[in-house]
Prior knowledge:
Blueprint: H1 3-65
Bound molecules: zinc ion.
Zinc ion binds at residues 67, 69-70, 72, 79, 81-82.
Amino acid sequence: MDGKSASTELYAWSLIRPCRMALFDEFKKAYAEILFGWQLLTKRSLILKHTMYTKVQPQDLEFVSECSSCNKPKPTPACGSC
Ligand SMILES: [Zn+2]
C-alpha cells in the first residue's frame, strides 16, 4: 500500500462518512418522530385514562363511601355490616 492509495482510501472514507452521518441523521429524525408519535399516544391514553377516571370517580366515591343496603359509610367496597 503506497501513500497514494492510502489517501484515496481516506478520500473514499471522507465521502462515505458524511453520507453515513446523513443516514444516521435521517434515522435519528425518524426515530424521534416515532418517539414523538408514541409520546403522543401515551399522553393521549393518559389523558383518556384520566378523563375516564375523573368521570368515574365521583360515582365510585358515592358507592364506596356509603353502603347501598344499610347506608353506613364503608372504607372498602365490601360492607362490614352487611
Ligand atoms: Zn351495609
